Every structure is written in structure tokens, then in C-alpha cells.
Amino acid sequence: xxxxxxxxxxxxxxxxxxxxxxxxxxxxxxxxxxxxxYSLAFRTGDPTAAYVTAxxxxxxxxxxxxxxxxxxxxxxxxSFKKDAKALEKIGMPEPRDFIIGVDxxxxxxxxxxxxxxxGHDVELAMAVCDRLGWNLKIQxxxxxxxxxxxxxxxxxxxxxxxxxxxxxxxxxxxYQYGPYVQNDIVIAARDGSMIWNRLMLSGKKMVMSSTPExxxxxxxxxxxxxxxxxxxxxxxxxxxxxxxxFSGRCDTVLTDSTAIxxxxxx
Length: 266
Hints:
By secondary structure, the protein is an alpha/beta fold. Helix content is 38%, strand content 24%. Residues 1-24 have low confidence and may be disordered.
């Protein structure tokens, strides 16, 4: 009897410890709602694509892409082809403005902080422009409007948390470079919580961004809304959602897997 009580006490201590300290600030995936991948998109036949992809492949060979992936995500989750002589093969382009369209709701890929564009994809685009001698300009876009933005000439490249419409790719409306990173829309909880799978979501409080994409992901599981307790949509996006999670104001967040890599690394 005493032995059983001792074992029970040890288990309780371990569980209480799991809810404290550094591990409690980690984030774990509880349920994957939507699987998707990010890519770059260019106008079909636009020579701009050749220079940008050559610069990326050169930077990949030099280790810059791996460096940025480790900086933002703590791991090398970004994957591009590498070719140290890619730029040498096609030659350097003329100086110009290079306009990328980004989804500013795709933290940490692209977002606005202190009135400036920032994120992994933004920083990589900066490195590409530095290598090509181009001037980077950034335009926020809706990811469902990639083809319209490209064909109208508003942007030269859709790059920054962009999940492409498969029909646009199949019909040749855009030229796809990638995918370069897997980004799933998931429900996540803190490591220290006792929420391990979707069966444990019953009655739990969840926060999510107020974007159409987040709502579409929520509706992908018809039983989810009924299973959850309170669901709050926040206008502040990913950073506000994680603020709620880490402060204990909710049990779970609906978010991107790339955001989880970011918060587990910082």
C-alpha cells in the first residue's frame, strides 16, 4: 500500500512539474485541420523568376537559407534546391524595383511590426535583392488573389506565406517555385497542459485569428465547434493568439505550424 502511494505521489509531482518551468512555454500540436505548403508564384513566362530562383539557389548553397531557417524556426524546415553557380550561369540582371506580394496574416513568414514588413520570407527576399542589386518593395495581398495581382502587374512575385490555388498552377496561370516549407493549420496547446489529442478538446477555450482562412479551417471539422467550449476570434492575429495562450486566458489556439516552430524556438 505504501509503495502504491509513493508511486502515485511521484506521478503527481511529475505532472505538476510539467505544468511549470521552461517546458510549459513549449507548444504542441493537438489536431491538424488543414495540410498545405507555401510556394513562390510568378507570372508565367516572366524572366524575373529565373533571376530570383537562381539567387535563392545560390544563397541555399552558401548556407544563407539554412541560417535564416534556424533563426526563425529553430530548425532547417525550409527547403530549396541549391546550386552555387546558378547566378553565374545566367548572369546578373539590370537594377530594378522588385515588388513582392505578401500575406501579412502569415506570421512568422510575413507580417507587420512597428509599421515595417518583417518575417522569414521578407528577410530572405531582402537577401535575394541584395544579391541581385534590386530594390525590394512589398505589397500586402490576399492569397486568393495571387493570379489577379500578378496578371495586373501590381506585383512581380507572390512570396510571403502564400498557399497557391492548385487550379491556377494546373492551368498555367502562374509559375510556381516550390513548395519550400510545409505549413499546416492546426490546433495547439501548451506542452504543460493535459490536452494531448482532439478527444481532450471537449469544453476547452480556444482562440483563433479572425481571417477567412482560419474560419475555413475551423469548419473543416464539422464536429469541432460543438466539441469546444468558448471559441474567440481575435483581430490581433497570431501574436495576440499566443499571448492569450501563454497568459492562460485560453486552453488552445488555432494557428499555423510554422508559428509553432517559431514560438518553440524563441
